[in-house]
């Protein structure tokens, strides 16, 4: 289905097509998503309320003029405000592997444990799968679940435990979404769950809890911190202590409350403009 992105959201089929940087065509059989008007939901989901000018401190463009030229082509890139549970499980699938395998695992989870829907659009049949419910993953047979996690039974067990923690309130998104909760405390609460370390916790916070101050550090982030910002720490092996040091360092370069959002633009700019990577 060219030009359209499509998915099931709250059991509702949604087709989305970008028209301009900030305008979209949305096709749905319902006038509301999760109890909100479609326009309100999409604006929030695509973070169209975020002013890109807030991402970088005053004087950043003058201090890093060559980087700014490269980065200017990425200002239309948006972080999504994704569902907490989907983000939690997706990033638990992401530990230590590439995007191809991550996509494969999430697709298998949806096909195996999600809801299947078929719709007709422009005379063509489209098959959609919802993300699995917490109950379906909490009660899943571990052997069957491990088939969706690259045969990693430990990962499957951790996912099942996380689903149960979500259901019994130990992983409460309303508590975790509290904007006054200090980021180190939020990270610590997420890391209590097996299979979640600092980076995965920060990814969950950034993409699933709207904590745009969360700054996940991976290989690409280390590389651009060293290359563009001359961080000597970024040249050293990544340990838990160094992870937190790089996190603090990034906040001296970027606006602290939007460090993760800005870091995401830098991440994609680095991969495409410097590393010349075209696919994930």
From TrEMBL:
Molecular function GO terms recorded: class I DNA-(apurinic or apyrimidinic site) endonuclease activity; damaged DNA binding; oxidized purine nucleobase lesion DNA N-glycosylase activity
Catalyzed reaction equations: 2'-deoxyribonucleotide-(2'-deoxyribose 5'-phosphate)-2'-deoxyribonucleotide-DNA = a 3'-end 2'-deoxyribonucleotide-(2,3-dehydro-2,3-deoxyribose 5'-phosphate)-DNA + a 5'-end 5'-phospho-2'-deoxyribonucleoside-DNA + H(+)
One example of a Gene Ontology biological process annotation: base-excision repair
InterPro entries tied to this protein: DNA_glycosylase, HhH-GPD_domain, HhH_base_excis_C, OGG_N, Oxidative_DNA_repair_enzyme
Cited SUPFAM superfamilies: DNA-glycosylase, TATA-box binding protein-like
Annotated EC: 4.2.99.18
Domain 8-oxoguanine DNA glycosylase N-terminal, chain residue ranges per copy: 7-88
Keywords for this protein: DNA damage, DNA repair, Glycosidase, Hydrolase, Lyase, Multifunctional enzyme
Similarity comment text for this entry: Belongs to the type-1 OGG1 family.
Protein's UniProt name: DNA-(apurinic or apyrimidinic site) lyase
Organism: Chlorobium ferrooxidans DSM 13031
């Amino acid at each position: 289905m060219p030009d359209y992105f499509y998915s099931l959201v709250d059991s509702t089929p949604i087709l989305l097509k970008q028209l301009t940087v900030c305008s979209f065509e949305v096709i749905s059989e319902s006038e509301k998503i999760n109890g909100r008007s479609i326009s309100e939901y999409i604006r929030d989901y695509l973070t169209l309320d975020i002013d890109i000018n807030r991402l970088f401190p005053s004087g950043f463009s003058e201090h890093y003029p060559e980087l700014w030229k490269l980065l200017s082509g990425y200002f239309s890139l948006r972080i999504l405000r994704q569902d907490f549970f989907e983000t939690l499980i997706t990033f638990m699938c992401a530990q230590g592997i590439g995007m191809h395998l991550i996509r494969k695992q999430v697709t298998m989870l949806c096909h195996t444990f999600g809801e299947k829907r078929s719709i007709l659009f422009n005379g063509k049949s489209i098959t959609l799968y919802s993300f699995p419910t917490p109950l379906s993953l909490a009660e899943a047979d571990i052997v069957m679940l491990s088939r969706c996690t690259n045969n990693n039974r430990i990962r499957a067990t951790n996912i099942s435990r996380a689903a149960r923690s979500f259901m019994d309130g130990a992983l409460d998104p309303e508590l975790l979404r509290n904007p006054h909760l200090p980021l180190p405390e939020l990270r610590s609460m997420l890391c209590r769950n097996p299979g979640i370390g600092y980076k995965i916790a920060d990814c969950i916070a950034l993409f699933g809890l709207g904590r745009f101050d969360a700054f996940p550090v991976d290989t690409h982030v280390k590389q651009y911190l060293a290359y563009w910002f001359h961080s000597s720490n970024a040249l050293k092996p990544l340990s838990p202590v160094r992870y937190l040091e790089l996190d603090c360092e990034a906040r001296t370069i970027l606006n602290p409350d939007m460090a993760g959002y800005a870091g995401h633009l830098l991440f994609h700019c680095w991969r495409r403009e410097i590393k010349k990577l075209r696919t994930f």
